[in-house]
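[User] Once you have settled down, look closely at the record that follows, and write a paragraph about the fold.
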Amino acid sequence: MEPRAYSAVPVGTNFLLVNYARSSGEVLLDPSLPVTDLQATINTYAAGYSHSFGIAGRTASVALLVPYANADLTGNVEGAPGHAYRSGMGDIRMRFAVILMGGEALTPEQFARRSPTASLGASLSVVAPTGQYLPSRLVNVGSNRWAFKPEIGLSQPLGNWFVEGMAGVWFFTDNNDFFGGRRRSQEPLPVFQWHGGYNWRPGLWLATDVTYFTGGQTSVNGAQGQDLQRTVRYGATLSVPLAAQWSAKLAWSRGLTARIGGNFQTVSITLQYRWFDR
């Protein structure tokens, strides 16, 4: 969940961040595999960078996130208790976004004098298959496939309050080297987010978050699995300025309802450094 993802920023803004997230709960696997009651505790460490610039008079940005993860997994394999540990680089994530309305390309000085207005944005997120992957394993850190998510988002300030809504769809290429040399496909996964919060001053804000996703049914060698997803998650995000160019962001989320998978809790902390181009 990403509150303030489509809020306007000045051109020439750079963000460098490090993030730690801990997730625990149910893990979704292909239902044809002989593994049941799979629970995981996953620690993810990530470093990221984003840069904003002007394009055709609008504000745009590019971002890159490089994750590393380790996970402890327990479950039943053919009825017998089992345990596994995984550790390695995850799949790199990239994002291009542009503010289509309310996001004129402004310098930091111009931006400081502007009156906040509604902003409408669009983005494309890409996940590349760069993570650790071994086809002999049931569970991997990497996914061995590409994923793409086009998305639109609207952010509306209401005095010190703000409300936001986002709608996107994940599309996946096939994993042609799935466990046992099989081909695993996944149908598109629509994702909707809603956020509402209060902004005390620049950098200090609190948001409540809700996301809903449905679809994403998988098939292995053409045989469709019984793993249609239909999940609602909720959480909160707090941003706190630490110094002139430093800030921290704390986030928590958990599953509210889940047809299959998605019933896990995540706590994360992000340390962020910001500077402007000269």
